[in-house]
């Protein structure tokens, strides 16, 4: 069961992270965060990039830890499934979250 | 007991009465699956005729075949029937029919729920078809965009027919989703671990899971729009704080996963049929399972690509463009798995394989134009043109129809016991394949030449004349092809050669069943140790028919099948299934009365119908369970297992988990809508905020706490066989919950603004309604357990019902608190006593 949960965890993290990034972008635009400057970035840029990096860190940790996980039953299949799920979550966050590196204007 | 005597005994237990009574009370999965498939095929035929009328109108410029009003109804009904009445119900029917056979089970987990879903589907379809016959069919497109579908621009009941009829049918889809999910997870042959499941079961599991979370946003959107149309609550009206794009978000939150909900079962057929056709096991089973899971998740991150032209910020476009391109990867993993299997095997070009070849060709083209459309610049150029129409038909017909046809021809011997005529079937295939490509390949060009979608006519000289004529000619060829297929199938059923038990020499369990399929599927259930359990001879089939597997006996006339631990497939319980009943059709009829009452404006009748539904639900639940402790039962093959009422993880418990998951998705979608309006809609902050009452909120909190503690006490006392104390606990919990509901209503009456003035008021009243409805349902459930304690249906061993009610209660309490916070916190400054 632990491996099944692990398979779903990476993808669930992607779903939650993707929603959070999209929601934060909407919220930041609604609250005018592009007008606030934080060093070389706007507050919206900074918040989005920070959130993305945190999510990436979590997803990477999940993916790496599934290499160490030992299967409880049906060994090879479920272990591979956990690897696929967690790495897909990481790659998904990496690619679909990468647009936060673009200038975060609200137009 | 001899095989024949066992067959007769099981047929008596699992069969249905003769005549109309049998038709109306039947809950058998094979019969219901066939009904779904046949009814869906009828809807496909009707949708196809509508498509031909559309093509007849567009075949020449300035055609006078139909006017704009009728044309709008034609394309709306074509899309709605194909998506909601054909594609989903057809695969549901196929899954209902095949899954227990593939999994080595005797039926699905909740047979009465299947029957209820069937009747909802049938009655909902009558509403749509009746409206069409009366000229009142929906005419705002199958997506019902606001403000076009709002009361101002669609004043009649056409849009209401869509909103209420489709929502009624969606109840059937959600029922099927829960049914299929739990059946795959729990009702398998012992030994069949997750990774030993037939690949089709994985596809259906993921698809059903997607439906559990994919349909609630659509049901919410339809509910909100119907409330706006009926009572003027302005969720989508920008003049009063609403926003039309909220509809699009909620619709496509359902609508894009819907594409994959349709595609995945079809891909499951390819993964099942193709290995048999090429005489080689599926290569990359584990990778394909992984890719299905990934696809299931990623498909929920694409919905905004249907809204690229609505003016949303560029950064959001980039998020969804990236996700739309990424989703191609897991699809391609499956395609590589199929190609590798073909490469390693020895392809036989039988009719199912022809359809799979057609699928490869068409779906590949549809996928490529899909990646093109995922790119924002091209999307803007071809937005709302015939290019998109061509793309979606390549995806849906290529990705659904062709694999489904492969499946029908592959399983035809299983479904009918007969084989089709080889030449007629091939003729049908080539006509459909050629007609389809003539129709839709050229339609890409029509779109690139600038022809918009959903226009009833066009002027000559724009370069659209000949491509439209070609498309129309192709569509008629395709229609002739489908007619040939129907004739072929009809002839096969009536006069086809009798098939042997396993004509394709496949290795999955459905081919171990006798022909014709008995009502109980298998006389005894196998122990599965490999992914391909069926031997090339008939030894396993014979041994199962002789009752040498699990449950190969008649135990007091009970309908028994095996329940397993979800991951390992270890036998954990003997699931006792309910028999034929009037309750499903009666409950569906009462539910239909509710929707009809709303449709015709008899609002007083709607609550009456709901009371009848609640009474029937009570009767339904009361007909299940057991009033005696049975202890471990002999399951055959030397194994023992308790009946499911006495097991820890019974199907009913998991059914509640998935039902609540759907319910929670509905609530989350509503909160998303609230946040969306608050940040994006014009006219916010609203002119009048809630002025919540501390007193009412305090009573809600106290009552929620009391209900929580009282139920905890009730369940603990039930475990300790202290019946009187348990009944008191449940009684107190129900009373406390009733107080919480009343206090929540008072909270609304005392402090919330009118719902029709501003979208804020409308949303908070809907939130409040959600809490009140759920509180009332949970109260009824607590009262039910109290009654069951008195009737002796709960004991320390039989704790299923209290555990299920605990789930519902705790969810309800959490939802009530969330509702309270969502309403109260944004207006925290204006709280008062």
Automatic annotation (TrEMBL), chain A:
Spans through the membrane: 42-65, 77-102
The UniProt record lists the keyword Transmembrane helix: yes
The organism's place on the tree of life at top rank: Bacteria
Keywords: Membrane, Transmembrane, Transmembrane helix
Protein's UniProt name: Uncharacterized protein
Lineage: Bacteria, Pseudomonadati, Pseudomonadota, Alphaproteobacteria, Hyphomicrobiales
TrEMBL record, chain B:
Pathway the protein contributes to: Energy metabolism; oxidative phosphorylation
Record's bilayer topology term: Multi-pass membrane protein
Enzyme class: translocase
Any GO MF annotation of the entry: cytochrome-c oxidase activity
Cell compartments where the protein resides: Cell membrane
Lineage: Bacteria, Pseudomonadati, Pseudomonadota, Alphaproteobacteria, Hyphomicrobiales
Pfam families documented for this protein: COX1
GO cellular component, one term: plasma membrane
Signal peptide: none
Matches recorded under InterPro entries: Cyt_c_oxase-like_su1_dom, Cyt_c_oxase-like_su1_sf, Cyt_C_Oxase_1, Cyt_c_Oxase_su1_BS, Cyt_c_oxidase_su1_bac, Cyt_c_oxidase_su3-like_sf, Cyt_c_oxidase_su3_a-hlx
Protein name: cytochrome-c oxidase
Protein family membership: Belongs to the heme-copper respiratory oxidase family.
Domain spans labelled Cytochrome oxidase subunit I profile: 8-529
E.C. designation(s): 7.1.1.9
């Amino acid at each position: 069961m632990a491996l099944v949960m692990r398979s779903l965890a990476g993808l669930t993290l992607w779903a939650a992270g993707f929603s959070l990034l999209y929601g934060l972008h909407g919220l930041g635009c609604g609250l005018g965060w592009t007008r606030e400057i934080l060093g070389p970035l706007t507050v919206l840029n900074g918040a989005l990039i920070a959130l993305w990096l945190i999510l990436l860190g979590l997803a990477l940790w999940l993916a790496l830890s599934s290499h160490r996980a030992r299967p409880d039953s049906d060994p090879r299949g479920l272990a591979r499934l956990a690897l696929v799920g967690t790495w897909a979550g990481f790659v998904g966050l990496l690619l679909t979250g990468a647009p936060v590196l673009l200038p975060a204007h609200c137009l | 007991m001899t095989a024949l005597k066992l067959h007769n005994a099981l047929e008596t237990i699992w069969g249905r009465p003769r005549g109309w009574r049998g038709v109306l009370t039947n809950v058998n999965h094979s019969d219901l699956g066939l009904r779904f498939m046949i009814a869906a095929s009828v809807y496909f035929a009707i949708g196809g005729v509508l498509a031909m009328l559309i093509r007849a109108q567009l075949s020449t410029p300035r055609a006078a075949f139909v006017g704009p009003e009728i044309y709008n109804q034609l394309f709306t009904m074509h899309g709605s029937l194909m998506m909601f009445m054909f594609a989903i119900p057809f695969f549901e029917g196929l899954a209902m029919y095949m899954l227990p056979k593939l999994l080595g089970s005797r039926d699905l987990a909740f047979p009465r729920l299947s029957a209820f879903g069937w009747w909802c589907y049938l009655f909902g379809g009558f509403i749509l078809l009746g409206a069409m016959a009366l000229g009142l069919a929906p005419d705002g497109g199958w997506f019902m965009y606001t403000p076009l579908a709002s009361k101002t621009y669609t004043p009649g009941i056409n849009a209401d027919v869509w909103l209420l009829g489709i929502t009624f049918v969606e109840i059937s889809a959600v029922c099927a989703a829960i049914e299929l999910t739990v059946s795959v997870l729990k009702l398998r042959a012992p030994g069949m671990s997750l990774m030993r499941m037939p690949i089709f079961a994985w596809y259906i599991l993921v698809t059903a899971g997607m439906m559990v979370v994919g349909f609630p946003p659509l049901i919410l959107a339809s509910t909100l729009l119907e409330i706006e149309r009926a009572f003027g609550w302005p969720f989508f009206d920008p003049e009063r704080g609403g926003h039309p794009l909220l509809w699009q978000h909620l619709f496509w939150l359902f609508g894009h996963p819907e594409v994959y909900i349709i595609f995945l079962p079809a891909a499951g057929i390819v993964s099942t049929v193709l290995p048999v056709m090429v005489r080689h096991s599926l290569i990359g089973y584990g990778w394909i399972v992984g890719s299905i899971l990934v696809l299931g998740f990623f498909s929920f991150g694409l919905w905004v690509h249907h809204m690229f032209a609505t003016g949303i910020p560029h950064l959001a476009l980039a998020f969804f463009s990236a996700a739309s391109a990424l989703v191609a990867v897991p699809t391609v993993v499956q395609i590589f798995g199929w190609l590798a299997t073909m490469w390693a095997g020895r392809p036989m070009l039988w009719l199912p394989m022809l359809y799979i070849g057609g699928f490869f060709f068409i779906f590949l083209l549809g996928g490529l134009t899909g990646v093109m459309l995922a790119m924002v610049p091209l999307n803007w150029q071809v937005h709302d043109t015939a290019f998109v129409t061509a793309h979606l038909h390549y995806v849906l017909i290529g990705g659904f129809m062709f694999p489904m046809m492969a499946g029908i021809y592959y399983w035809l011997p299983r479904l009918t016991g007969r084989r089709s005529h080889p030449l007629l079937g091939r003729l049908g295939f080539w006509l459909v394949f050629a007609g389809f490509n003539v129709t839709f390949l050229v339609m890409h060009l029509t779109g690139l030449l600038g022809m918009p979608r959903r226009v009833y006519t066009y002027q000559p000289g724009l370069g659209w004349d000949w491509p439209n004529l070609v498309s129309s000619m192709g569509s008629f060829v395709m229609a002739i092809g489908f007619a040939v297929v129907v004739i072929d199938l009809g002839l096969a059923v009536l006069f086809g050669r009798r098939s042997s038990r396993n004509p394709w020499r496949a290795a999955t369990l459905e081919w171990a069943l006798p022909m014709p399929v008995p009502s109980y599927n298998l006389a005894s259930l196998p122990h599965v140790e490999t992914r391909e359990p069926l031997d090339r001879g008939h030894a396993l089939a014979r041994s199962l028919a002789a009752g040498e597997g699990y449950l190969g006996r008649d135990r007091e006339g009970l309908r028994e099948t095996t329940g397993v631990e979800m991951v390992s497939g270890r036998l954990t319980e003997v699931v006792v299934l309910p028999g034929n009943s009037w309750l499903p059709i009666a409950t569906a009829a009462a539910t239909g009365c509710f929707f009809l009452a709303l449709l015709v404006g008899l609002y007083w009748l709607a609550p009456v119908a709901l009371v009848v539904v609640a009474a029937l639900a009570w009767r339904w639940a009361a007909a299940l369970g057991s009033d005696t402790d049975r202890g471990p039962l002999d399951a055959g093959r030397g194994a023992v297992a308790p009946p499911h009422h006495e097991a820890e993880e019974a199907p009913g418990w998991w059914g509640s988990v998935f039902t609540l998951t759907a319910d929670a998705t509905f609530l989350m979608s509503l909160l998303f809508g609230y946040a969306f309006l608050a940040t994006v809609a014009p006219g916010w902050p609203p002119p009048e905020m809630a002025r919540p009452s501390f007193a009412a909120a305090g009573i809600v909190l106290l009552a929620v706490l009391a209900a929580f503690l009282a139920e905890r006490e009730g369940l603990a006392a039930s475990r300790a066989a202290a019946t009187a104390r348990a009944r008191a606990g449940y009684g107190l919990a129900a009373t406390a919950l009733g107080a919480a509901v009343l206090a929540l209503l008072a909270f609304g009456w005392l402090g919330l603004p009118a719902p029709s003035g501003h979208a804020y008021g409308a949303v908070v009243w809907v939130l409040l309604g959600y809490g009140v409805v759920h509180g009332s349902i949970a109260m009824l459930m607590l009262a039910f357990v109290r009654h069951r304690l008195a009737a002796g249906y709960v004991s320390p061993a039989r704790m299923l019902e209290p555990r299920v009610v605990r789930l519902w209660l705790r969810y309800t309490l959490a939802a009530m608190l969330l509702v309270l916070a969502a309403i109260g916190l944004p207006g925290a400054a204006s709280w008062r006593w």
